[in-house]
Write the C-alpha cells for this entry.
Amino acid sequence: MYSQIDANKRKTVLLMFGFFVLVGALAYGLGLYFGDYFITVFALVFATGYALWSYYASDKLALSVNGATQIQKSDNPRLWRIVENLSITTGMQMPRVYIMQDVAMNAFATGRDPKHAAVAVTTGLLDAMDDNELEGVLAHELGHIQNYDIRVAMIAFGLVAAISLISDMVLRWMFWGGDGDGDGNNSPFAIIAVVLAVIIAPLVALLIQLSISRKREYLADATGALTTRYPEGLASALAKIRDSAKGSTMKKQSPSTAHLFFANPLNGKSFSNLFSTHPPIDDRIKALKQMETKA
C-alpha cells in the first residue's frame, strides 16, 4: 500500500508534466496556424490556471455534478457511524459525508488528500446493502483516500476537462472565422496541429484518465478487505450490484467523473463503456474470494 501511495504521488507529478507538454505543443501549433501567438500564451495561461483550480476545487465540482448533498450524523446515523468507525480503524481524519438521491447502488470518494476528502453514497446503496456489505463498500472508498487515488483521479478529471474546453474553444474559433488566412501558416504541419487539438487531444487525455483507473480498483478492494478483515462483505456487495436490476447505473451520468465511482455508473449502451474505467465485477469478486481462501 505504501509503495502505491508513493507511486500515486509520482503519477500526480507526471500527469501535470504530461498535461503541460500536451497543451504547450497544441498551443504552439495553434499559434503557428492562426498567425497569432496570443493564442499560444492564452492557452498556456488558461491551462495553468485551470490545473491549479482543479487541484483545489475539482472535488466540489464532482460532488455538485453528481447531485451529492452533505449530511451530518443526525441525517443518517447508520452511514455516519460506519464511516466514523472505519476512519478510526485506519487512523484517518473522517471525510465529509454526502448522499446522492439515486436508486442505483454506487458510491465514490473524492478530494486532494486524506485531510481534504469526502465520500458520497447513493440512497439505492443504503437501501440495498446490509451493514457488512455497506461497510465493505465504504472501506473500499476510504482505501482510495488512504492510497491517494483520489488525488490522481481528481487531477486527471480536471486536466481532461481542460483539454476538452481548449478543443471546444478551437472549434468555435474556427467556426466563427478563425480560418488562419492572415499571417498564419497553412502548412500541412499547422493543419495537422489543429486537427490534433480538436480531435485527438481529448482522446489522448481520456486514455490517460482510463489508464490509471482499473488497477486502483483492485488495490482499493484489497485495502478495504484488509481494513474490515472481512472480504466476504465487499464481495457480497459487488455480487448484489451485478445481479440487481437497479445495478450501478446512475440517473445523472457524467463520463468525466465515471472513474471515481465504486462501480461503473454509465449504462451498458454508452460509448464510454467501450473504454470502461472499471474492471469486470466478476474479476473483482474472484480476487476477493482468493483473499478469503488465503485468509
Observations:
- Residues 2-34 form the longest helix (33 residues).
- Residues 67-148+213-294 form a domain with the Zincin-like fold (CATH 3.30.2010.10).
